[in-house]
Amino acid sequence: MGNRTTQAFNEHRRTFLRSLGLAAGAAALNPMGLVGGTHPHAQGLHPSIGRLPRIGLVMPGASSSGYSGGHFTAGFTCYLDEAFGRAGVKTRLIVDEGEKHPHKAVRQIAAMIASGTVDVVVAPVNPSSAVRLHSVLEARKTILINVDTGANVVRERERSPFVFHSSLSHWQATMALGRHAVARYGKNVMIASSVNESGYDALFTFRLGVEASGGTIVDTHVANGASAAADMKAAIERIRIVNPDVVYAMYNGADAEAFLKLYSQTGLSRRIPLVASPFTLADAVLRTQGVHAEGIRTCGAWSRELATAANRAFDERYEAHAHHRADAFSVLGYDTARLIVEAVRASGAVTGSELADGLCLAAFDGPRGTVTMNVRTRSVETPVYLCEVRGGGRGSVHAVTEKIEAGRDEHHSSIAALEMEMRTGLSYSYLTA
After folding, report:
1. What is the per-residue pLDDT across 46-94, written as a single tens digit (0 to 9) for each?
2. Could you name the CATH architecture of 171-300+383-420?
3. Contact (CB, 8 A) for 173 and 210
4. What's 3-169+307-381's CATH class?
5. H helices present in 115-247, as ranges
6. Residue 431 has what pLDDT?
């Protein structure tokens, strides 16, 4: 699997230099399972590719399976192992433990680009922050692939020939869920959100979906963050007063657990339906609150229950590679690695403008369906899936009820107007820190 060395861009640097497909017996050198070795499914899927770009992966939590960054990294290396495990394809993969603060992250990425040691940087960056990298990217002809949930619409001023976005299509999914909420439950819709979830376009695109279907957001309750317990009680009391046809919940982690439990215990779940962000009902939340989540509908880019051969094969291969179950960030890492490979296939290039042209042409069928690149926004497009929580308790799953094709909302007049507005809210990349 190659040698591990330590070089300096910052104190977090871990550099992995390896030629994929070396003896599996070298596994002891790589306890994290990061790139290389053989895999029971690896068949040298791209024998025409002699080498890959030099890739820099800058990811908070890259080395931890307990964080989204660790799942992304495992998914990224899972695809490289699968595609090149026996092909002897040479690459250089540099993995940095990424900074969480957006300004520090930009400086860290800029230093990597300026070093001249990478052709492609893969990192989570809020599109508004990535603007500060445009000049160094264009001077060095280095490509940045921004990887995140896709909670923000990419504005025209945030675009660059060398910046691409590989995401979980979150704003598209929330818009679809807004339409669905009105069609299924009624026109009077209320939003309940934590302050952290409220600072991105996804909240506004849910509203646009509601309005596009003839509904109205009758109230928006955003927690003030002073006290989690007080915030949840205030949200529940506000829902009682407003008495909407349906509530959209945008929480994460412990806040999501507390909200779901209180919503059920107060009896609101029996009379006011709840729809939610897929991150509100992440696997960790379902394991503890599944009994309170039965019947809740979400919309997102991926579900483990998506019944396709590609998804079943991915789920099996990922668990064998990473030794834990996949989540949406695992799929995002897997698809992003494949995006780079398909760009090399399409262009025959591993650097510069030619590789950027290849990214514009890249298309493939993956675990979440057909993945294509929107050339105008340089953003990946995938289907999104309406899901319903079924099973009750620790065995709860996101059962897929409907597939919604990619690109449906790109030319929506409200989205075009949103692209021209200044973005308000948080400069962190949503849920990747």
Report:
1. 546 778 899 999 998 887 766 789 999 999 999 998 888 766 676 789 9
2. 3-Layer(aba) Sandwich (3.40)
3. no
4. alpha beta
5. 127-130, 134-140, 170-185, 201-212, 228-242
6. 62
